Amino acid sequence: MAGKRQMADWKLLHVIHEVHRKRRARYCARRICAELQAQGLTCSRKPVARLMTEHSFEAKRRHRYRITTQRTP
Q: Do 47 and 12 contact (CB within 8 A), yes or no?
């Protein structure tokens, strides 16, 4: 039998997974928490970050565009 925390974590994990997939894995824990609060759910950043770490959800980072070829005037 699962405890209250495990049940709450499972429900929160399900919602985190949906937001993570919907946003194409671009959102970190801070932005996912803000998204959940905008949807009307009560959460804080630390439990979201803990669940994301435990289940290997990582935000994809953008690569910086660099100019490698320098034009000569």
A: yes
Q: How far is 32 from 19, CA to CA, in rounded Å? A: 7
CB 45 within 8 A of CB 6: no
- CA 52 to chain CA centroid, nearest Å: 7
pTM, to two decimals: 0.76
Written as one letter, the residue type at 24 is R
Q: How far apart are CA 29 and CA 23, in angstroms?
A: 12
Q: Which amino acid is at 12?
A: L
pLDDT digits (tens, 9 = 90+) for 26-47: 889 999 999 999 999 988 999 9
What is the distance between the alpha carbons of residues 19 and 64, in angstroms, rounded to a whole number? Answer: 25
